[in-house]
Specification:
Elements lengths: L4 E3 L3 E4 L2 E3 L7 H6 L2 E11 L6 E9 L4 E10 L9 E3 L6 E15 L2 E12 L2 E12 L5 E7 L10 E12 L9 E11 L5 E11 L3 E5 L3 E4 L5 E14 L5 E14 L8 E7 L2 E5 L5 E4 L6 E4 L9 E4 H4 L4 E12 L1
Length: about 325
């Protein structure tokens, strides 16, 4: 399958991660994007296994600001007992949180916000700060946590409360039911003519995340150990009004060094991941070239008493190249 666009911006930052650079979004698209910001309070209870939660919501465009508020417990009630709420802070709340939000930027899976939050216990401000965050969609970021000692849990059994913020792009009604299909290839080449390729398919609704993974590429070593390259990842796609598709692609690579003769082989691995945002047309392909392997790992092979064999990944996989090729299409709009 030929690639019509090449993205080679994956840069090895360390043995444990990939840095892929900032997302690029056309200003016109960003200015029209509406983001749903949620402040959520949730807790655990020894009485109610499912716990409890409430959330406050604001809808913002880039440059706009808003306030979200939640509360838990009532003054005079023990600990967190007495109910929870969202919206305007209750004057009789034992604990109340407010967050002033400024939406700085909005692109797929990368939403920039400035958060100024405060916690009030019995009406008195006791905690808070201001921070700038870059949030992935469908992910909650913790702001505050309360732990309740066992003697103070009261009849409701409330053991803890956590406050988290999240931000997601709000889908236009005309595109909310869109289904995006992804044809994904992994191509591994060893620089000597060896080539391992595999194809898989994934699908997800507009703005939702699809996962993919491939069979490991494995090489046996004379020592009795195996080495393997495992590739997987996630894709979040969004069809735009102009017919193009914005994709956030997060490939992951795991390097493993195993002893296959042992039933539950010990494994030493390095894991790398990153994210790239690209724009493509339906049916077009984009290639992501993963950086050269780095680091090393050690593992006894065969004889547990023998010195560990150290694998230098850069030397072993010299001239190897791993690529991910993604071709999106629209099944239903």
């Amino acid at each position: 399958m030929g690639s019509k666009a090449v993205v080679a911006g994956l840069v090895a930052a360390a043995a444990t991660g990939l840095s892929i650079g900032a997302a690029q979004v056309p200003p016109a698209s960003a200015s029209r994007t509406v983001v749903t910001v949620r402040l959520r309070v949730s807790g655990t209870s020894t009485v109610a296994p499912s716990g409890w939660w409430a959330e406050s919501v604001e809808h913002l465009r880039a440059g706009e600001s808003g306030r979200v508020s939640v509360n838990a417990g009532k003054i005079g009630a023990q600990s967190l007992c007495g109910g929870i709420g969202a919206g305007a802070s209750s004057s009789d709340a034992a604990h109340a949180w407010t967050a002033d939000i400024v939406l700085i930027s909005a692109s797929i899976d990368r939403i920039g916000v400035r958060v100024s939050w405060r916690r009030f216990d019995g009406g008195a401000a006791v905690a808070g700060d201001t921070r700038e965050l870059v949030l992935a969609e469908q992910t909650r970021y913790p702001l505050d946590f309360l732990s309740v000692s066992e003697p103070d849990r009261g009849g409701c059994g409330a053991a803890s409360a956590s406050v988290e913020i999240s931000a997601d792009v709000a889908e236009p009604a005309s595109l909310a039911e869109t289904i995006l299909d992804y044809e994904i290839w992994r191509v591994h080449e060893d620089g000597r003519g060896g080539r391992w390729s595999e194809r898989t398919l994934a699908s997800a609704r507009q703005g939702e995340q699809a996962e993919f993974w491939f069979t490991p590429v494995t090489w046996p070593l004379p020592s009795g150990c195996d080495v393997a390259v495992k590739v997987s990842g996630e894709i979040r796609g969004r069809l735009r009004d102009d017919g193009t598709i914005e994709m956030a692609v997060s490939p992951s690579r795991r390097l493993e060094h195993t002893v296959p003769a042992i039933r539950f082989p010990d494994r030493r691995a390095g894991s790398e991941t990153g994210k790239k945002v690209v724009d493509v047309g339906p049916g077009q392909s984009v290639r992501f070239v993963l950086p050269s392997a780095t680091g090393s790992s050690g593992l006894p092979c065969g004889d547990p008493q023998a010195p560990a064999l150290r694998v230098d990944w850069a030397a072993l996989l010299a001239n190897h190249q791993t690529s991910i090729i993604v071709r999106p299409s629209v099944r239903r709009q």
